[in-house]
Design brief:
single chain, globular, binds iron/sulfur cluster
Length: 372
């Protein structure tokens, strides 16, 4: 520890990091200073310290499957390689029968405990489609939690139904939705959204829908997609907006910083972004996430999906405490040609044990399913 104190005294961000060791979270300006600093290793040491105080040497993961129920989308985000316009020859929507059949296979073969239900903004899907899907999943596979529909999908359903997002959330909760993923936030700054996803919901709408979900007893995760056109100030704003909502509702269980994967996206074609942000930036984002949300949002997820298993192992020593999910069936990121988009529980357990940590399998709500 004394060595750490000496390093802190020599660092340009030492005051911010010392404060976080004393339980004082960084404000917006401090956050931007962290993001502009190259002292990533020191941030990691402090973030790891905060993480170990809370979790010791333990990492969780969820045995889950991703059900990308449709790739039809009318929102045309420039960072997305997954979607197809309506009537495109490669467009699809998974039928309720097929949902049941995929669930059966995933349950019988892998014993999944969560399905993450996400797709495009498909204007032909009525709310009954989602209600039927959730009811069947909960009835036939009661041990599998439904984690589904980003704020922007919920907004889309409300437009199709000409009703409020509150009404949509309430009906979906009644039919089996249990928690809401954080997708659709990207960077919660409208100037950034105008460039990367001009047709998507605004930052305020994302925050409002999340608040409605929290108030209804639907906990959520929050995400950030970095590594495109955003500045450090934009990232700082994103962190602070989520912190403010969390102070109000306490509804976020986890924060997940994702790095943007440019392959096959319009942003790459237009040369807005040429290559992904890479490993050092991932470690910085993980460390800053822990430092920003220590004592506020419990879990920080290492994102193996876009950065690989080896980087995720290092991220677990830079502030992350959760490995994420096995992601059986993932289709969104695989459209960017990312090397591997699903893992078996055995591979995650091995990756965590390789760094000498205990492995906890968890459910939707970060409750222990079992220790491995
Ligand atoms: S990110 Fe989602 S909303 Fe945007 S184009 Fe892709 S599927 Fe549609």
């Amino acid at each position: 520890m004394s060595q750490l104190v000496q390093q802190l005294h020599r660092s340009e961000i030492g005051d911010v990091l010392e404060n976080s060791l004393r339980g004082i979270r960084p404000n917006f300006n401090d956050c931007v200073r962290l993001l502009r600093s190259r002292d990533v290793h020191l941030m990691g040491l402090v973030a790891d310290n905060l993480t170990k105080n809370k979790f010791g040497r333990k990492t969780s993961f969820v045995n889950n499957m991703i059900l990308n129920y449709t790739n039809v989308c009318i929102t045309d985000c420039k960072f997305c390689a997954f979607y197809r316009p309506p009537d495109h020859e490669e467009s699809y929507t998974v039928s309720i029968e097929e949902i049941e059949s995929r669930m059966k296979t995933a349950w019988e073969m892998f014993g999944i405990t969560q399905v993450m239900f996400q797709g495009g903004h498909n204007p032909t899907l009525r709310i009954e489609y989602f209600e039927d899907a959730f009811r069947i999943i909960r009835k036939k596979f009661p041990k599998v939690g439904v984690h589904g529909l980003s704020a922007s999908e919920i907004d889309m359903i409300s437009k199709v139904e000409h009703t409020s997002t509150k009404e949509v959330l309430s009906r979906l909760k009644d039919s089996g939705l249990q928690s809401v993923p954080g997708a659709g936030a990207e960077i919660l700054v409208d100037e950034v959204k105008q460039i990367i996803s001009p047709k998507k919901i605004s930052s305020d709408t994302w925050l409002r829908i999340m608040e409605e979900a929290h108030n209804m007893g639907l906990p959520a995760s929050a995400t950030m997609m970095y590594g495109h056109v955003e500045t450090e100030k934009d990232i700082g704003e994103h962190f602070v907006k989520i912190a403010k909502l969390q102070e109000k509702t306490g509804g976020f269980m986890a924060f997940i910083p994702w790095s943007f994967e440019p392959n096959y996206t319009r942003m790459q074609k237009e040369q807005t972004v040429k290559y992904p942000a890479g490993g050092t930036q991932l470690l910085k984002m993980i460390a800053v996430s822990r430092i920003m949300y220590d004592g506020l949002i419990s879990h920080i997820q290492s994102s193996w999906l876009t950065n690989g298993i080896a980087m995720a192992q290092i991220a677990l020593q830079y502030g992350a405490d959760d490995f994420g999910g096995t992601l059986l069936g993932e289709e969104v990121v695989s459209c960017t040609g990312a090397r591997s988009t699903e893992l078996t529980p055995a591979k995650i357990i091995q990756a965590v044990k390789q760094i000498g940590y205990e492995v906890e399998e968890r459910d939707n709500f970060y409750n222990t399913v079992k220790m491995h």
